Amino acid sequence: MSTRAEQVRAWLLDLQDRIIAGLETADGSPFLTDGWVRGPEERLQGDGRTRLIEEGKLFERGGCNFSHVRGDRLPPSASAHRADLAGASFEAMGVSLVLHPRNPYVPTVHLNVRFFTAQPQDGDAVWWFGGGMDLTPYYGFEEDAAHFHRTCRDALAPYGSDTWARYKQWCDEYFHLKHRKEARGIGGVFFDDLGADGTVEFDQAYGLTQAVGEAFLEAYLPIVQRRRDLPYGERERDFQAYRRGRYVEFNLVFDRGTLFGLQSGGRTESILMSMPPVVKWRYDWHPEDGSPEAKLYTDYLPPRDWLA
Description:
Layout: H1 3-27, E1 32-38, E2 45-54, E3 59-71, H2 76-79, E4 89-101, E5 108-119, E6 126-136, H3 142-156, H4 163-174, E7 176-177, E8 182-183, E9 187-194, H5 202-214, H6 216-227, H7 234-253, H8 256-263, H9 268-271, H10 292-300
Antiparallel strand pairs: 1-2, 2-3, 3-4, 4-5, 5-6, 6-9, 7-8
């Protein structure tokens, strides 16, 4: 393992520990720890640490996973935009988090930070970073949306005056259900292939990725504290389950991380920990005009500048 890979791995493991400590304090329940190793007889080799909570006081289901894997052939999801890397051997590591709170007024949230290296059969090795975080409310609050986006903006401010705006737009475009013609949530920031074209130095790309990961708890926990004790009933839980179906659709159809894990022969239980525990689908259902549920579609899902 290269010095760079060792450096990134150490930070990722520490980030996972610190995020879990914050989430356990918020929930009041411990996360399960499941360490795993994939040996040379496996198609994908490496190790990881799955941290999961189910039926917690705050989180109905959630996980924050670390993985570090190596393979002989980069899967299609990782080389779709880089034909020159098709078939290259690779090494990938990252932390991926999804939290599904029980209270429908507390939003679902996602974070991922990752580091790849690939070695084509002909040519030099290539490295890149990717990641981001995004928020998926069921009942929106402008104060929460502004806080989440402001935290993302401030984290990226040292990396260029236009970086946050570009990565926010990228997030809006990426977390979009094309078959539904609607957003999954209210976005955040998203970036990928940072450093792959050789125009960004390693320290710059790594620092930016760290800034995103380090901002997560500040972006999310204040929202949790504001909304966790709001009263709710069966109507709100029913709508939450319906909207969770959109989360499932996106992750299984479009999400590059999920597809990478499944295509590369990754650990299925860890990959699918992002799935919510209770989900509903309905045929051609629409919320009543003027209802709190309709407001999500009219006021929150369409991309907008929350800091204007």
